[in-house]
Amino acid sequence: xxxxxxxxxxxxxxxxxxxxxxxxxxxxxxxxxxxxxxxxxxxxxxxxxxxxxxxxxxxxxxxxxxxxxxxxxxxxxxxxxxxxxxxxxxxxxxxxxxxxxxxxxxxxxxxxxxxxxxxxxxxxxxxxxxxxxxxxxxxxxxxxxxxxx
Length: 149
What we know:
Layout: H1 7-18, H2 33-47, H3 57-66, H4 94-111, H5 129-146
């Protein structure tokens, strides 16, 4: 499985981000490309331990049963619900969001699994750093695929 902590996989993601254009259109979903980049960046903040969204009641009840979706071999489903605090609906600057996300990915990869958050995922609950690394790759892959790169 691909893991963002593997430099080959993080370089692949960074190259795909560089292929995005401000006019890229989503194949599904409501976010535009700049909003998607901001959303992925906000998710990186969670994984890096810079943001701590609360666990919702639904996640507390069923999150542990759904947790393998974060780190199995299957792609994430289209139009999957998201963490409410990282749902981006306002206007964002494409170039700024693109650069910010790339820098967060580089920092996260360079810091390694040791610096990964120990705070639970807002829906899935406690994850190991390996599960976070796979989940981050899957999340980025999901959204880059959404925009055709």
